[in-house]
Amino acid sequence: MRRVVFNQKGGVGKSTITCNLAAISAHQGQRTLVIDLDPQGNSTHYLLGRSAEDLDTTLADFFDQTLNFKLNPKDTADFVVQSPFDGLDVMPSHPKLEDLQSKLESRYKIYKLRDALDELDAHYDVIYIDTPPALNFYTRSALIAANGCLIPFDCDDFSRRALYALLENVQEIRTDHNRGLAVEGIVVNQYQPRASLPQKVVQELIDEGLPVLAPYLSSSVRIKESHEQCSPMIHLDPRHKLSQEYLALHDTLARKYGT
To answer: Which sign, positive or negative, has the C-alpha torsion 86, 229, 248, 241?
Structure first.
């Protein structure tokens, strides 16, 4: 299973959702890989506890190799880094991804990520792909390479307006490039059940027939501590309410999609 977490709006929790679901998959015994396509590298730092500049190999090296012919190219697996968590590996981001984007796009390398994941499928049960907050070369590559798409949603009107355009973009990728791509659902993040606006906005999405997933993920300062300590919630505080919500969300996806 290859699952991309995507939203063109920033600050909706893409990296947090990616890393916490991936950590649960690994914790439950699945061989799990996280691919961090966002040049900001939040997932890389969250799971490895190091910035990209401290790593010997990153996704920037992988994409650079696709641009420059080499007699003895590295295997895709050589760009994978072990995390401190059992069963959880990372293909780390790097700020250089930003500079490489125009070259990759102009030379039509849009299918290289999909080809790379074809090589890695035998090594992993589930692959999570974190994306930048934009519809660019990297997010298109991820949507072309993935089987499923999760859409984080943070319960405000701006997010709701952006959601419709996002769903149209995903459908266009599906039609033109990847018939196997499915929208697995909308992940409601930073939910405040006592506030009227989140309840109203989420209920309207449900009434429109959009695939809103349960449970919703609560707003909590504990997640900021999780970021600071570079430890996903299942490891930092498994009994916390938010950890239990992530577990329930992971179980929902497993029941619906088998992983």
So the answer is: positive
Q: Are 192 and 242 in contact (CB under 8 A)?
A: no
Q: Which residue has the tokens 């570079």?
A: 230
Neighbours of 204 (CB within 10 A): 11
Query: 10-residue block means of pLDDT along the chain (259 residues)?
Result: 93 95 98 97 95 86 90 91 97 96 96 96 97 96 97 84 90 96 95 86 93 95 96 98 98 86
Q: Which two tokens stand for residue 214?
A: 């349960």
Question: What are the structural domain ranges in the chain?
Answer: 2-257
Number of DSSP helices (H) and strands (E) in the chain, helices first: 11, 7
Q: How many angstroms separate the first and last alpha carbons of the chain?
A: 7
pLDDT at 196: 84
For residues 257 and 251, the answer to whether their CB atoms sit within 8 Å is no
pLDDT of residue 70: 75
Q: How far apart are CA 70 and CA 228, in angstroms?
A: 39
Closest alpha carbon to 95 in 17, 12, 36: 36
- Ramachandran angles phi, psi of 178, nearest 5°: -150, 85
Taking the domain 2-257, which CATH number applies? 3.40.50.300
Per-residue model confidence (pLDDT) at position 119: 94
> Prior bond to 215 cis, omega within 30?
yes
Helix, coil or strand: residue 1 = coil
